[in-house]
Amino acid sequence: MPQNESTLQQVLNGLMTRYKDRVPDVAGIFQAMIKEKIITDPSEIENDHIAFRTMGVKFLGIQSLEKIFLHYGYTRRDHYYFPEKKLDAYWYAPASTKDPRIFISELRVHDLSPKTRSIIKSYTDEVKSDPSNDLDLNNALAVDEFLHSGLWRLPTWEDYSTLADESEYAAWTIYNRYYLNHFTISVHNLKPGYNTISDFNIFLEKYGFVLNDSSGKIKESPDGGLLQSSTVAHMINAPFANGEQHRIPGSYVEFAERRVRPEFAHLQPSEIKREHRREGFEAANADKIFESTYLTQTSRLK
To answer: In 54-80, which positions are buried (b, 16+ CB within 10 angstroms) versus exposed (e)?
Structure first.
């Protein structure tokens, strides 16, 4: 295995280890899948993509975080714009189809109100240079530590709440920084009866998992080739400045069904590979998936 690929695997493993610790739905879904005999071990699951949220300010944002994954052989692909949520995003294709795609979004801070911009800058201005430039990208432990470390001071509850009033994305990111926002189970590779979003959602709800229902539980691209759903982020106990603790949304789990592209419809199931399926993402789908951490969804949890 080339050094970069080996380092990437260590970084991905570090991300997933901490993500699973923070998101109880991950272990719950894995256990339910084993109980239903969908899988015998979580290692059989294909991770369609992982996602990060960033702040679009000097020294940070997409231009900074992407350097890590470009170093590991990823290629920047399509751009997406979310006018209502004031976000930009790109997805990144891995060098190996065994690895997950990466989706990095960025808050258009300059499009926010002066008050919100001022709060964000009071934290992000603590970053005086691009932190990715100082990282040894061949040191997986250093990269893992960076992705789970505070880039600025712990926010106050007042600042977090004020940000959330205008942008729940801003509040989530000012607190969580680069913590993994979600990972994604490729359902199309599961056994029949569970290998469509529709069937897999039925399975999830049977086991009590609450699904994001913004614009419906299934988000489908206009071409019908990409279908997605997601759980609703559970609330976590979060320490804030001044010793305060409050419950805020954590991360969530996503599910994707990538259908075979029309030009490959003649292939037998055993012949179908990743490159034969619908690629990329869909802005309208992602727009609603973002809301898995929003109050309109988290308030539905018991």
So the answer is: bbbbbbbbbebbbebbebbbbeeeeeb
Measured in whole angstroms, how far is the alpha carbon of residue 287 from the centre of its chain?
12
Predicted local confidence at residue 110, as pLDDT: 98
Tell which residue, 213, 194, 215, has the closest CA to residue 257: 194
Reduce the DSSP state of residue 208 to 3 states and report it.
Answer: coil
Residue-range domain boundaries for the chain: 3-298
Tokens of 12: 């991905």
d(CA 301, CA 297): 8
What single-letter DSSP state applies at residue 260?
A: B
Fold for 3-298, please state it: 2,3-Dihydroxybiphenyl 1,2-Dioxygenase; domain 1 (3.10.180)
Strand-strand pairing, 245-249 and 47-55? unpaired
25: three-class secondary structure by DSSP: helix
For 117-155, b where at least 16 C-beta lie within 10 A, e where not — what string? bebbeebbeebeebbbeebebeebeebbebbbeebbeeb
CA distance 245 to 237: 7
Distance CA 199, CA 59 (A): 44
How far, in Å, CA of 274 to CA of 259, rounded? 10
Q: What is the pLDDT of residue 1?
A: 54
- The letter for the amino acid at 25 is D
Q: What is the pTM of this model?
A: 0.96
Q: Find out whether 252 and 23 touch, Cβ atoms under 8 Å.
A: yes
Instruction: Please write the tens of the pLDDT for every residue from 68-96.
Output: 999 999 999 999 999 999 999 999 999 99
- Which regions in the chain score pLDDT beneath 70? 1-3
